[in-house]
# Entry
Amino acid sequence: MLRYLDNSENAAGHINENYARELMELHTMGVGTGYTQQDVQELARILTGLGVDPRPEPPQLPPDRAGQLVRDGLFEFNPARHDYGDKLFLGHPIKEADCPRWRESARHSRSSPGDGAPHRP
# Structure
């Protein structure tokens, strides 16, 4: 889905809402359940930097972001493309300071899917 819904094109300063909208409309909440266009935009900002990269070499990153790169098969979290600003999603503030916990949770859920239940950081 990341590839076909253009999330690889979703980057800080260049938001692409396709993946975020489909996650909300088709895979989680459903149409008409109370979320707003602003929620779609904020989810798109949260998902910046996630994509698919078939190249074997990692992207060139500044030293302060290099340790945040996540690659697992074709999946990639590219910190150079991520929007690190504070966000408000479905009425819940998401602060920049929470991002390391979120990334660690993403690493854990990819490496140990368990029962398929969502994991909270």
